[in-house]
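Input set for joint prediction.
Command: fold jointly, output tokens.
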Amino acid sequence: MAELDGVLRELAAEMAERTDRGAVASYIPQLGTIDAGKFGIAVALADGQVLSAGDADEAFSIQSVSKVFTLTLALGKIGDALWKRVGREPSGNPFNSIVQLEMEHGIPRNPFINAGAIVVSDVLLAGHQPREAIGEILRFIQFLADDDSVFIDREVAASERATGFRNMALANYMRSFGNLHHEAELALGVYFHHCAIAMTCRQLAQAARFLAFDGRNPLTGHSVVSTQRARRINALMLTCGHYDGSGDFAFRVGIPGKSGVGGGIIGIVPGVASLAVWSPGLNENGNSKLGSIALEKLARTMNWSVFAS
Amino acid sequence: MAELDGVLRELAAEMAERTDRGAVASYIPQLGTIDAGKFGIAVALADGQVLSAGDADEAFSIQSVSKVFTLTLALGKIGDALWKRVGREPSGNPFNSIVQLEMEHGIPRNPFINAGAIVVSDVLLAGHQPREAIGEILRFIQFLADDDSVFIDREVAASERATGFRNMALANYMRSFGNLHHEAELALGVYFHHCAIAMTCRQLAQAARFLAFDGRNPLTGHSVVSTQRARRINALMLTCGHYDGSGDFAFRVGIPGKSGVGGGIIGIVPGVASLAVWSPGLNENGNSKLGSIALEKLARTMNWSVFAS
Amino acid sequence: MAELDGVLRELAAEMAERTDRGAVASYIPQLGTIDAGKFGIAVALADGQVLSAGDADEAFSIQSVSKVFTLTLALGKIGDALWKRVGREPSGNPFNSIVQLEMEHGIPRNPFINAGAIVVSDVLLAGHQPREAIGEILRFIQFLADDDSVFIDREVAASERATGFRNMALANYMRSFGNLHHEAELALGVYFHHCAIAMTCRQLAQAARFLAFDGRNPLTGHSVVSTQRARRINALMLTCGHYDGSGDFAFRVGIPGKSGVGGGIIGIVPGVASLAVWSPGLNENGNSKLGSIALEKLARTMNWSVFAS
Amino acid sequence: MAELDGVLRELAAEMAERTDRGAVASYIPQLGTIDAGKFGIAVALADGQVLSAGDADEAFSIQSVSKVFTLTLALGKIGDALWKRVGREPSGNPFNSIVQLEMEHGIPRNPFINAGAIVVSDVLLAGHQPREAIGEILRFIQFLADDDSVFIDREVAASERATGFRNMALANYMRSFGNLHHEAELALGVYFHHCAIAMTCRQLAQAARFLAFDGRNPLTGHSVVSTQRARRINALMLTCGHYDGSGDFAFRVGIPGKSGVGGGIIGIVPGVASLAVWSPGLNENGNSKLGSIALEKLARTMNWSVFAS
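tokens >
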């Protein structure tokens, strides 16, 4: 893997020089103060190695990347019953959020848009206090990353809560259709906290590795989810993982991925590796600008694509 | 491949017995009279073999499956300039057609919804009479299928033209935004004729084979499109190939595919095979009901998935 | 007015016999238990008389009829500055509520749809505690009705609050656009309480009388609002007073009116009279079914129409 | 009427000096070349007098003002059966046209938006050749205006036809729902021709006079339509006559009116007068900018409002 190591290093160097870095999310102060110049990348391989370059050991707010892990947990908890409350189709609409909820009677299009992830949080709340549900999510991610230092940035969580009027609107709207079983405040409490989890690229790549190996830890053979479930989560990432830029990401990069407004993206190369990249500036669809570009270049260089023969 | 042969035979037998076959499209009389009991399946392999079962040698109206081939031709003609006139995102909206055109100022979401395919037809018209453009499309598909007997069902084309008011509305609407360069009548003439092409499962599987092998004929090595383009067409099929059921198809079947209201579906297993299935009854999203189920079963049995490790 | 007296009596008798009474609103238990057989009507004239028939002295939940009075108060408080935060156009859309808020960036179409009335409540909160704002509204309506027995049904208010998830969604959604200046909870507290005001037809007809006489009490000459403002409130009632049935009410009845889901409607015959009718069953647009029919018949019999020569 | 004469003269003088005249419609060359400095106004009174000022004797393209007359004719032809094919509600949506048709399954919201007027044209076609239907409309307007010099500007009609892709889309879309009984080409032929009728303010005021006097010619007592129908057409003008500025016009001016993109507006003061104003520059809702302002000023000066006591 000397080759991949060099590729990552060159990529990080190239990205460090680019000036078209997009705009850092600023809807809460804690995100807006991040240095737009950061760039990190990490690749977790079957043999346990994690190669990295750039700022790959600096923790950042994973935001919506966390939705892959909460979805995994919720499927473990209630299985396919989840799909009665959340769809599996791309939102496919710049005017998506509330409009589509109205059209589709309170059923979010997929678990990766905000409304869908709030339903997932609501599922994780069943039988728990919010504090317990949040603890369960954090411990699951620490377990996947094999690193107990993964933490929740409580300042970010508090700030999202104080300004999250649109998410409050979504939650109440779904509740008006009976598709939220707990108080909006409680479900959002879980949601805001898991979005505020802070991780490094290295930790994220490691945590997502089970998705690249049919649901198992390739070293120990330990199964996190079934083969079928792992593939299906990958399918959801490919079709829905980048908001209204999902089609473009599949077209350009050709692998399943999930982005967050903190500038992180995870990517899955089935049978080969799991990836994490971080660059805080966002493109017009709210996905990491340089992160997307770096993954496109990396995939092309390494000939990684789920569509390759 | 004795094993696959048996799998296909069993699958065809199982499907023949099912009574929940969906409803045959009836918007034009020529489609409505098709026997809902039909079921055919064919698999084209790298070594040139085409295995099949059921009614795999009976020609049917390929309808929107043809959009994969016209897209391929249009990309060959104007390359990435196409993407200024058509998007690459799932439509993701049961109320898609005209609503989204209004929201997005006459730019269709992707080349596989009707509006997008009409723009593709408009591209193929440039410098040609409709008759010539139609002839070019037919010859391209005959070449891919390696079979000159592929034909256009002119009765179906005439019938679609006579009743295609909504497509006429879409075409005129795009023309009002300047995104149709020829008269609506002319672009629709091309569109209705390529949708009316009739093919067998065997011919379709063969014609789609280049997409499973990075754009090349695996026997001759002859290149139809570049590796990158083949993968990208596969990506578009995975995210947009089944209308508002695209996410579900990716979730259940896990391979790129494209359906038509005639009941046909093509599927791509990169590096392994191209598939075609046909059963005229449709599910609630307008995709072949038994065709989708058969592909899901076949993919599971053969462990075919672009998301597999 | 012997004649009008007889007309009202006959109308009440005719309505008492009808069996097609629509469905009583049931979204909160307190409304659902009302006897669908009730019918009352009252007409307040220039000379101070209030003629009535049927259950005109029974108090009912005025619900959205209250929005006419809160709009009047808010205009008194901040004048035309209100129109920067609320539009003056019919919502004109069965899918109105949240969809339109998204399209129009948090500005409700008019002050009579829920979102608009919540903004009006927010205006009335400025410088006040919710309790004070609610008190001010109640005292204003008591003053207009010249009757201190008008009261707020606190059980209805509490019940609306406990189940008003969609209104909570609307309020939070507007707050995400900066068009709500107080906490959603507080503005909704005011909103739910003024919707829970209980009045009789007699009280309502009396309270609305100033709108029929260019803003003045026709007996004392005392001015409630300016002539221009009274006419403009009438214009808003005519174009927006019956949700997505506003055009139909103008077409059939021909006078400004405002309905509530409690089954009440007020109507204005400029220069002649103000009316109130009550029948709890609603038509498909959420307006009192028999109330609308009774007003249409009354207007035709009395030749009342703002469009008459 | 010396007073009104002076008011009109002053108004015309004031409007002549204003420089904020809006933008002249330019979607067809014939409209774009009109001098934005034009302003005319005319008032038809009960006694047969027509007072006027400014460019009141210059013919202009009446465009959508013609829809009041075609609606009147269609109601005469099929009566209330029309309301099965067209609604009576304000469109209330800046994104109205095709979006609403999709939501409401091909039934236009009202007869004054383009889609609704195309259905009205379709009604007038029944049993006729387009040429005959167009002739019938022209003769009806000549009769109402008592002036045979009213004519159709065929160059305008031809030009609208050549560029009217969006109207072609609307017509085909309605035909896909079965709500257009003739070929789109034919219905649009009628539509484009009646929109291309050219009239002076004086002719227009005269032609609309029956609506101010309960459907009758106030001099002869001759009835054009029933009292009820006249009032109902007025109600439709008040709620739907100015596209998405209808509420604002009712709020500011307080009388029924109908505008056209040629810059003309007719207004009705029941029992008193019918008005026509013309100034080619349009405001952001597509209604004559100075025409709207002039009518607001005139109504205020003369104390004309359907909401006055």
